[in-house]
Amino acid sequence: MSGWRDLGLKFSRKISIVDSDIISSAKLIFSSNGGSCEHSDQFGDNDCKFDWGDRVAGEFEVKFVGGDDEKSPELGGDARIEVDMKAGPKMKEADFQISCQVCGQDCVVEIPLVSKKVTIKMPDCPVTLKNLEFNFDQALPEKSPVPSLMTIAGDGTVRVVTPQGKLMEAQFDFEMK
Description:
Mean pLDDT: 85
Oligomer: single chain
Shape: globular
């Protein structure tokens, strides 16, 4: 019997490469260590569900035009990572925005629901855009951290922006019970 406690974590995404002169591809792939994804496209897995206790493992890959040679493009301190997000219990969602330089200074993020500051160490400038592979492997808790009969949900957009415009944008949403 399926119930509220069995929902787990649901995740979906939409990726747009806005500047294909710099970014040639981006892909998010989940391994078969747990969970299941209903769809896949040129950007990888999508519409995924993970049960509590599953391992969320896989790889995020971004390939840059010229990312394998000495003439790789670079980003300076005028490039930014921007996040617009809404998350929380359905009855009390909180909006928050993040805008940080891609390099040259730490990114300080205030998480409104828990009133916590997180500092993310950013690299020195300039950042050479070599092909990027990021592997992840994290076990979800055995049982839901969300109080019974409550749903935590959120959605948002992540962008990498230069003075010339957007390079890439990813929209996401999640829900957990």
